[in-house]
Amino acid sequence: MFLASDDVATRLRLIEHRVEGVSVLEVNGELDLYTAPLLCTQIGAKVDGPSSRLLIDLSHLQFCDSTGLRALVGAVREVRVAAGRVAMVRPARPGAARAFEIAGAAEFLPLVKDVDTGLSALADRRG
């Protein structure tokens, strides 16, 4: 099954902004085989070396399958290879939260409970 880019955009909405020097990417909707490439592209555009600090807010994620989890693991690896720092806000919605729980995501993803905790974890500690 092929989905047009408009279909992907309606299933996964990404909102970007900066807070205190941290790139925040809010992920809303469904993260699966069809939408994961969009997320990976957005994250890849945010990684620019050791100064990269990225907070991926999954609190509004409605659904996540194994492809979505793999994409998140790959994103973390990409940021770390570039010597950047990354944190992810845990999904709050039951469906997505359950997928993370079943997969044991806390063992391989830098999950935090909320945006404030994530921003604190990524705070610039130079100076």
Automatic annotation (TrEMBL):
Residues 12-122 form the STAS domain. GO terms for molecular function: anti-sigma factor antagonist activity. It comes from the Bacteria. Belongs to the anti-sigma-factor antagonist family. PANTHER family: ANTI-SIGMA FACTOR ANTAGONIST TM_1081-RELATED (PTHR33495:SF2), ANTI-SIGMA FACTOR ANTAGONIST TM_1081-RELATED-RELATED (PTHR33495). This is Anti-sigma factor antagonist. It comes from Solirubrobacter phytolaccae. The lineage of its organism: Bacteria, Bacillati, Actinomycetota, Thermoleophilia, Solirubrobacterales.
